[in-house]
Each structure stands twice: as structure tokens, then as C-alpha cells.
Amino acid sequence: MVAKEWISAIVLLQLCYTGCGLCGKVLVWPCDMSHWLNLKIVLEELTERGHEVTVLVSPESFIIDYSKASTLKFEVVPMPPNREKAEKTLNDFLDVATNVMPTLSVWQSAMKLQEFFLQVTENLKLLCESVIYNQSLMKKLQETKYDVMVIDPVVPCGELIAELLTVPFVYTLRVSIGNTVEKYCGKLPVPLSYVPVALAGLTDRMTFLQRVKNVMFFILSNFWIPQMDTQVWNQFYSEALDYVGKQKFVLIRSIGNFEFLVHTYLILSFVGGLLCKPEMEEFVQSSGERWCWWFSLGSMVKNLTDEKPISLPQPLYKGKKPATLGANTQLYDWIPQNDLLGKTEGKKNCTAE
């Protein structure tokens, strides 16, 4: 009898230390390339905590591999695949951005960007139509009864899907052109006098002419580009659907210490360092007071031929990790530069190329 009382007491004591929680259903409207690499870390953590995560993915995706086994569920949008066209658009943009635009004036660069955006917008418009006009897919999403939607605002239409499904949504992004999303949705003030517009290639120490350039980029990103978007997306969004500002939260995939000093509101939060694993940090810190270098081509360059690395004076390796690789060298498919610097004590001794 005494033994049973002790067993009951132990079980009751364990129940006192047991917590409870509710798991939800999450629908994701992602972007490709490095955007996905950052977001995937968050989504996998959600699944580990018991949440059900479903990702709407285009069949033309470059990095999102929905064919592999994963804890995430992938809902492939039924649309006519045109992978060759998507790859050509990306390669043309990389060529123009690296070889042509640096030699052009601000307005000439803007015209080149406009050509690229019009091509991409047509592809995104087709993706949006393939979702919202697909009655069987929308019915399936509505019957699932999602609790929240995670949206990368770089890809339009996510807010519209959230409205049609009547679910709240959260924004997650690294940066938007001209900081438009951060400003209008995250209430982030961007004083043009000392805060450079995103992607303008300026610092917070600007000359008079550089500030004029900053204002020109602001006009381009806040008035010209939105006008182009309005012409394309008017058939989907009406004046009654004022989606800007309806998000519950804005997550910025960056470290606040690396951003320009501005006041932030509770609706906006910096969540940088997600990709910087402990083993990567330990490897970089192992250099001590000595310098460390890394060479990164980003997540978009996929057409590097064998001739290009050979022409570089520095050693560059692409492919399977060789068995004879030294202990002071590591190979990665993609390196989060700011995340690594922000979490490394020896960040002053690290150089990115």
C-alpha cells in the first residue's frame, strides 16, 4: 500500500513539471535562393516543436527541393513549367548587374532594372493566377484551416492568399527595395539625410551628391516601381483590399548591430544569425588573432564554368570536398556573411571577398 502511494506521489510530481501547448498549422509563401535558406531554418524548428508546416512552391524553384524527404510538407503549385526561361532571366540579370550596370548612370541602371522586374513580374503573376484561380487547390487550403501564414513579401500575392483564406500572416525578409516593406509595414523610419536607401550602394556618411543620389533612389523605389506593380496587380487587388500594414509581425533576417541606427517598433524584430551554426563559429574563432578570409558568390551564381576559377590568381574550388583539404579550410554551399560576423568575437579579423 505504501509503495502504491509513493508511485502515485511520484507520478503527480512529474505532472506538475509537465507543460502543455497547442500546435498549429502554418502555410508558407516563400521566395527562392538565399531567402529560402534563411526561412528554412525557422520552418524546420517549427516542425520540431510539433507544428505542421506546408510550403507552397513553384515547380520552377531553383533551390527549394521538394522531391527530397523532409519534415516540411510541400504543395507544388500546378502551372506550366518553364525552367529554361526562368534560368535565362536569372543569368541575364546577373550579367547585366555585374558587367553592365556599374558602368551606367543612375537612370540608365533604373531602366535596366525595370526590364528585369517586368520579366520577373510576369512569372510571378502566372504563379499567383495558378493558385488563386485554381478552385481545387484553394478549396484544399481552406479545408486545412491554417492558423497563420508566413510570407516573404519579395514575392507578391501571399497577402492576397492570406485574405482569401482569412488567416493572419507574418512577414519575413532580409531587405526590400528602398526599404518600402520595412517602412510601410514595420513602421521603420528611414531618414534620407543619413540612412541610405537599400541597394543604393551608399553608407551613412554621404557627400552632398551622394545624398542627391539617395533621394533619386528613394523616388525610384517608392514611386516608380510601385506604379509598375499597380498596373500589373490591379486585377487582383482592389481598393477595398488594403493589405499593407495588416501583417501581425515583421521579421528582418539581419543583426540589428549591422543596420543603421534607427528607431524600431515592437511590430518589427531582427532575427539574424539563424544560419551561423556553432561549428562554423568555432572554426572561424579558431584563427585567433590571425586573419581569416572567405570567398562567396552568393546563392544565385550557378553557371560558374571551369575556365573562370582557373583564371583567378587565388585558389578556388567548386565541387566535392577533397579528402586532402587542410584543417584550416572549409567548403560551404552558401555562407551567411553578416550572421557570421555578428556572432564572431574576432569579427575585425575576417575579410569577405
TrEMBL record:
GO molecular function annotation: glucuronosyltransferase activity
Transmembrane regions? none
Q: Which domain of life is it from?
A: Eukaryota
Q: Could you list this entry's UniProt keywords, alphabetically sorted.
A: Glycosyltransferase, Transferase
Supply the SUPFAM superfamilies for this chain. UDP-Glycosyltransferase/glycogen phosphorylase (SSF53756)
Quote the PANTHER family the UniProt record gives: EG:EG0003.4 PROTEIN-RELATED (PTHR48043), UDP-GLUCURONOSYLTRANSFERASE 2A3 (PTHR48043:SF137)
Query: Which family is this protein grouped under?
Result: Belongs to the UDP-glycosyltransferase family.
| Official protein name in the record | UDP glucuronosyltransferase family 2 member A3
Which organism encodes this protein?
Ursus americanus (American black bear)
